[in-house]
Design brief:
6-stranded parallel β-sheet; 11 helices; 7-stranded mixed β-sheet; single chain; alpha/beta
Length: 321
């Protein structure tokens, strides 16, 4: 089979020919149809992600496809079933073996493209806004990086939860994408002052931040009393430092969210969230935005789109029909 493999943190991943893997006793083997790309993939290339696998490994964190074989201990999955899997690795290949505990059945109405774009982005935003921040109807939600993979889903879910959504992104095209996802107000991070624009809107109750850096600082200062700031990631490359005494002035809370971490200590929370999200999808309330769909031969081009911030929503690698 073909696989997009990383052998060294000093060299780029390569498309190689390798053996089709055999599932372990607790695993399913999936004939992979599509794989969603994530910013974390770029961190894995350099070995700076918190869960970077040992080298060499096949890249690609989330997949959709058809169960091809099952291990002897696996129940609930049989060959031919359509599934999505958050494997953490192994997705950019024609076949992959994954723990059955990381797989979910897909509704017949969900396309491979939507399924590959779904779990991490929507799961992150729903857990962050609902479980962590307890976002309430009529609160003001400021979403930084609002046209990116997770940011766009935060706009969409925040609107579904009844919030007034302010989307912050760079450039008119990205802001238009956020507006189409439900944003009520737009801030161009390239030309406008985030703090000043939020002051005009009365401040933020909840901030969703996958960016970090100067944007975090501006959003921090734009919070209302008892505001909650969700730290999702640091796409800017700048991890902000918080002076603890500044939290006291407005009684602010800073809440971290790592979606994959819930698999280890509260899988029930993650499972319940995904169930809700799939119900919303089937009801037509969620519409995954995929700006680029590329073949496996162009996986490196997909990574380059993420690195250059030229994509909106998700980049999906198409592997098989």
């Amino acid at each position: 089979m073909r696989a997009f493999m990383l052998s060294s943190h000093d060299t780029a991943p390569q498309l190689v020919d390798t053996n089709v893997p055999e599932p372990g006793p607790d695993e399913i083997r999936v004939r992979i149809a599509a794989c969603g790309l994530n910013f974390a993939d770029l961190l894995m290339m350099t070995g700076t992600y918190q869960e970077t696998p040992a080298l060499p490994f096949v890249m690609g964190m989330e997949v959709a496809g058809t169960v091809d074989a099952v291990g002897r201990n696996v129940n609930g999955f049989t060959p031919g079933k359509r599934v999505a899997v958050f494997g953490g690795q192994g997705g950019l290949a024609e076949y992959g073996c994954f723990s059955a505990t990381r797989a979910v059945h897909l509704p017949d109405s969900m396309s491979w493209r939507d399924a590959a774009a779904f779990q991490i982005a929507y799961g992150t935003s729903h857990l962050a806004l609902d479980h962590r921040a307890r976002l309430q109807p009529d609160e003001t939600l400021l979403v930084l990086g609002a046209a990116g993979g997770v940011g766009l889903t935060a706009v969409e879910i925040g609107k579904l939860m009844g919030a007034r959504v302010v989307a912050c992104a760079r450039g008119a095209d990205k802001l238009e994408t956020a507006r189409a996802a439900g944003a009520d107000h737009l801030i161009d991070a390239a030309t406008q002052d985030i703090r000043e624009e939020m002051k005009k809107l009365g401040g933020a109750d909840v901030v969703y931040d996958p960016v970090g850096g100067d944007q975090f600082t501006a959003a921090f200062r734009a919070c209302r009393p008892e505001g909650r700031i969700l730290t999702i990631g640091f796409a800017s490359g700048d991890i902000p430092q918080i002076r603890a005494n500044h939290l006291l002035v407005k009684n602010l809370s800073v809440l971290g969210l790592y979606w994959g971490g819930y698999l280890a200590f509260r899988p029930d929370v993650l499972t319940a969230s995904l169930s809700t999200l799939l119900q919303w999808y089937e009801a037509g309330r969620l519409a995954p935005h995929v700006s680029h769909e590329l073949p496996l031969e162009q996986a490196a081009d997909g990574m380059a789109l993420l690195r250059a911030r030229k994509s909106t929503g998700k980049v999906v690698i198409h592997i098989a029909d």
